[in-house]
Records
---
Amino acid sequence: MRYEARGEPLFNLFCYCRDCQRASGAGHMPVMGVAKEAFVCTGRVAVYPPAAPGKSGGRHFCPQCGSLLFGMPASAPDQVTLYVGTLDQPERFEPTEAIFLRDRNHWDVSALALKGFHRLPE
């Protein structure tokens, strides 16, 4: 299974909604939005129905490994939301905004604000 998105992203953001927290298993989901007309998917994907009907068009994932790939939000039928962890070039992701901050957990802070290590600390 492969997907491709041509052109510049419409947006780059962190989503803190509870649905994204559950889907990612983390405090937020890094998301890149692209125009649906610039998006091509080849191969088989599976779709998980949205947790809240009418809030999402479903989350598309690899039926073999279970990796979450992209979403097609019902609220924006002309867009596809790519889950950044599946990009071939994740370094293209430059977050510029955050949404659903009302749902952000107090412990989910920017990694830039934390002490960092390039490998496991000794």
---
Amino acid sequence: MDRFAKHIKTIDSVADSAYAIIPSDGSDLPSATRSIYVGGAGNISVIMANDDAAVAFINVAAGSVLPIRVKQVLSTDTTATDLVALL
């Protein structure tokens, strides 16, 4: 039973779906993220959901959740591992 199934989902709601991120310089993610879980520390180079310019998040700690909406995680300059898109 899902007690929250009928609740309205907003950007501030908790994630209810996820998928593993495979960084790519040529492909957008299947769906823009709500946030990204970082399993292994490092840098993450992304293109935000409403932008076309790459931006890098440097020295992101393992176990962090970045509350960022992105459409692409670039393989170039991304050294963080075990990335999970939260939706």
